[in-house]
UniProtKB/TrEMBL annotation, chains A, B, C, D:
InterPro entries: SAM-dependent_MTases_sf, TRM61_C, tRNA_MeTrfase_Gcd14. Keywords: Methyltransferase, S-adenosyl-L-methionine, Transferase, tRNA processing. Gene3D superfamilies: Vaccinia Virus protein VP39. It comes from Caldicellulosiruptor hydrothermalis (strain DSM 18901 / VKM B-2411 / 108). It catalyses: adenosine(58) in tRNA + S-adenosyl-L-methionine = N(1)-methyladenosine(58) in tRNA + S-adenosyl-L-homocysteine + H(+). Its EC number is 2.1.1.220. Catalyzes the S-adenosyl-L-methionine-dependent formation of N(1)-methyladenine at position 58 (m1A58) in tRNA. This is tRNA (adenine(58)-N(1))-methyltransferase TrmI.
Amino acid sequence: MEQSFDTKRVIIGPEGFKKVVDISVPKRVNLPTGYIESDKLAKISPGGSFFANDVEYYVFPCDTFDYVMHFLKRHTQIVYPKDGAYILMRLDIHPGKRVGEAGTGSGAFTLYLSMAVGPEGKVYTYEQREEFYKMAEKNIKNFSKFENVVMHNKSIVEGIEEKDLDAFFLDIREPEEAISAVREALKPAGHLGILVPTTNQVSEILTALQAHRFYVSEVVEIMIRQYKPVPERLRPDDRMIGHTAYMIFARKIL
Amino acid sequence: MEQSFDTKRVIIGPEGFKKVVDISVPKRVNLPTGYIESDKLAKISPGGSFFANDVEYYVFPCDTFDYVMHFLKRHTQIVYPKDGAYILMRLDIHPGKRVGEAGTGSGAFTLYLSMAVGPEGKVYTYEQREEFYKMAEKNIKNFSKFENVVMHNKSIVEGIEEKDLDAFFLDIREPEEAISAVREALKPAGHLGILVPTTNQVSEILTALQAHRFYVSEVVEIMIRQYKPVPERLRPDDRMIGHTAYMIFARKIL
Amino acid sequence: MEQSFDTKRVIIGPEGFKKVVDISVPKRVNLPTGYIESDKLAKISPGGSFFANDVEYYVFPCDTFDYVMHFLKRHTQIVYPKDGAYILMRLDIHPGKRVGEAGTGSGAFTLYLSMAVGPEGKVYTYEQREEFYKMAEKNIKNFSKFENVVMHNKSIVEGIEEKDLDAFFLDIREPEEAISAVREALKPAGHLGILVPTTNQVSEILTALQAHRFYVSEVVEIMIRQYKPVPERLRPDDRMIGHTAYMIFARKIL
Amino acid sequence: MEQSFDTKRVIIGPEGFKKVVDISVPKRVNLPTGYIESDKLAKISPGGSFFANDVEYYVFPCDTFDYVMHFLKRHTQIVYPKDGAYILMRLDIHPGKRVGEAGTGSGAFTLYLSMAVGPEGKVYTYEQREEFYKMAEKNIKNFSKFENVVMHNKSIVEGIEEKDLDAFFLDIREPEEAISAVREALKPAGHLGILVPTTNQVSEILTALQAHRFYVSEVVEIMIRQYKPVPERLRPDDRMIGHTAYMIFARKIL
C-alpha cells in the first residue's frame, strides 16, 4: 500500500528529540529512553502522549515542515523553511497558481509549492540529474496531498515546456544561464525567485537580470534566531544558522 | 461598483518609489517626476511601462504583499511579511484549512490567511474594537479573492464560536488571557501562533502555555536584511528593521 | 587658548537628546526644552544635572565615544564604534604599540588608536586629500590626550615612511593597491586590518592578500542591536544599522 | 623560570587548525598531519612557517586574543572578544585608567583590561570562589605584560576596597545585588558595564539601576558574522554564535 500523509507521526521527546515515523510500516522505533512499536504508536490520538521509562513523548500528525526537516531523504542542501516561507510570499504563491521550479533537488520546496497552490494549481518542476529526480519523485509521492506536481527529468536550459506561468523559482548551479528560458515561460509581470549561496553569484545574476529585462524587486537574506523556551531565563540559543542563501526576486517586464 | 483585486496596479519608479493605485477610480496619480491619469494607467498591460518626463515607470498587477505594504489602511502595527510568511509555514496553513485569528487589526494578516486557505478553507477572525473591525472589513473586501473570511466584532476572551480549528493566530494585547479560549477552539494537536513585541510578554506566555498544556515548539524572531541590487557594488542597506516581534509556536496536547 | 579634552561636556536629555559642548567657548546651548549658557554648564560637576523648564539634563565628561559620535566634524563616513572596537582588539592594539593608518579621513579612528597606544606608543596616519587632512588635524588636536600621532598629507601608494610597524589599518578607496606598501612597512607577523563596504571589494582584497603572502585570519561583520531600556517592556529598537562595512584581518607571513 | 608572553606561539594549520604553544616548555606538539618539537618551533621566526608531511603551518607570536581563545584555562564562560572589545570602548578604558571588575572568572577579561590600561593604569578584580581565583591568578600571571592587576578573593557585595574608580565591569550571578557597592566605588560620572545572559536579568538590572540613580546609556547585544575567505565564492559561515550575552552600560549620576 502507498504511504500517505495521514500515516506519518512526529514523536517529540526530551532535549529536542524529534522523529517522524510512518505508522503504516511495522517497525520498532528507538527513543532516547527506550522504544515504541509503530502499531502501538498508531493507536495514540494526535496530540496524545505515551511514556517510555517514565519519560513522556508527544505524538503529533506530520506537517510539511516536520516532513521536510525530519523525514525527507536529501542528497542536496534543501531550501530552509525560513527562506522557503519568504519565497512563497514574495512569489505570491496562492491556491490556483501555476508555478515552475528548477532544480527539483530533494523535492522539499516542490512540496511547499504543491501545498500552497492546492488542487486548482499546478507545479512544474525540472531536475536534470536522474538519481535526484528519482529520489525527489519518491519524497513528493510520499507526502503530497494534492495531485498537482508535474516532474521533468531535464535541464531547463534546453527549454521549458510550459508557458504563461505565474512564477518561477530557480535553485540551480548557474541560474544566470537559465534566465532567458525562464523569461520565455513566465507570463508578463510574472515573478522570478532565485536562491544562491555566494555574493559573487548575486552579482552575476543581477547583471543577467538587467540584460534580460527583469525588474529586480529585492535582494535579501533571512536570519532566524531561536530562543530557549524557559520563561524565567529567556535567552536566544547559543548557536544559530549563520547563512543558508541569498534570495533575489524579480518580475518580467515587457 | 465594488473595487476588486484585478483593478489594482503597482507603479514602480526611481529611487524606491512604489505606489498602489485602483484604476477603477478616476484619479490623477502623482509621481516623483510628473503624474499619470488612472484611465491612461488602465490601458498599460501588466509588466508594461510608461514615461513621465523621460523617467520610466513599471506597472505590475497588485500582489497581496504590495497591497498589504502599500495600500491597506492601518491604524495598528501590521504583521510584517517576514513574520507573516513564517507564521503561515509554522501553523501549516494550506488550502482547505480552518483557521482562527484575534485580533483582526487592520486585516493584513487576515488577507494572508484568506489567500493561503483558498476557496475550500475558512478564516474566522475576531476584533473587539469597532472602528478597527470596520476598517479591517473594508481592507479585506477591497482585496480578498476568496469568500472565505468570517468576521466577529467581539473579544475572544468571551468565547470562540468555532470548534475543531486547525490553527489559531493571536496578535492581541494580553494573549495569555486568551489561551484557555483558544484551547477550547482548537482540535487536538492544533497549532497556535502568538506574536508579541516584548521579552516580558514572551515569558508570561510561556508560563501560560505550560499551565494550559500546550507543547511549545518554537520561540523565534526573524530578521530580514536587504541588499542594494548593484552588481558591482553589492552591499546590504545602511538601515534595517531592528525588531518587529517575537513569535511563539505551540501545539495543543491532550 | 587651545581647546582640550577636559573642557568638553556631554549633555543628555529626554528622548535620546545628546549634545557635546566645549565649555571653554562662551555660547548659548540650545536644548529641547530651553537653553543653558556654557559658563553655567562649566559650574556643574561631572555626573551632576540641571533643569531647563522642569526637565532634567545630565552632564558628563566627554569620552572618545561621545566625541567621535557627537562632536567631531566629518566629511566622510567614520569607522563606527562597533567596528572600531573590534578592530582594536583584532589588531592587538595596546599601550606602546606602533601603528599605521590610511586614510585618516575625519580622524575618528586615529583618535581611537591614539587613545589605545598611549604615551609610549605611536600612530602614523596618512591622508592624501588636503582638506580632509586639515580637518582631521583639527579633530585630533581638539581631543587627543597623548602626543603620539604623526600625520602625513600623502598617499601610502607612494610609499610608507615608517618600518617595523606592529599593525596597519586601511580604510581607503582601493586598498588592494596599497597591500604591497603596507607589507613593506609591517614587521614580520604584523597585523593588517582592512575595512570595505562592498562584497566585491572583499573578494578583490582576498585575492590581493594571497598574492602578497598575507595569512587571512578573519573576514567578518559586526552587527549591533540596541534595546529600549524599559524593564517591564524590554524589546530591541524598531530600527537598527543594517550595514557599515566588512572587515578583513590578516598577518604578514615571511 | 616563569612563563611569559614572549614564549607563546600560535601555530596555524589547514582547515582552521589553531594551537597556542609555550616554547619554553619542552614538549612534542601534535598537529593534524604530524608533530613538531617545541625547541624546533622556538627557532622559527614569528611570521615564518614550517612543513609537517608537506602541509605548511604558520607561526605567529601570541596575541591577547589568541591566548584568551586558545590557551587560557576556563571553568566558566568567558567574555567573548566581540563583547569584550565593545565593553572596553563603552567603558572608555584607556592607558592610565583605574578599573574594577567582578567576578574575575577565568581572568580573560581581566587580561583585556590589564592590556588596555597599561603600565600607568590599574585593574582591581574580585572573585569569591577560591578555585576560580587561583586559576585566574595563574592565567593572568601567565600572560600579563603589565604589573597592574590587583586580585581580591572575596565578593564585592561585602564591599569594594577601592574608591574613585573610572569604571567598573560586572559579570556575576546577581549583579543587581552589587549595584550599591559599585556606586560607592565609582567616581562621579564613572562608567558601569554589566554582562548578563537572559532578558529577565536585563529587566531586573534596569530596575536596580534606576533605584540607585544610574543613567542607563545603552542596552545592547553584539552579533558577529564570519565569512569564508574564498574570493570567488564569498559567503558567511554556515553556523554562527547565536547569543553570548546582553550588555548594559550606565553612568553614576549624583
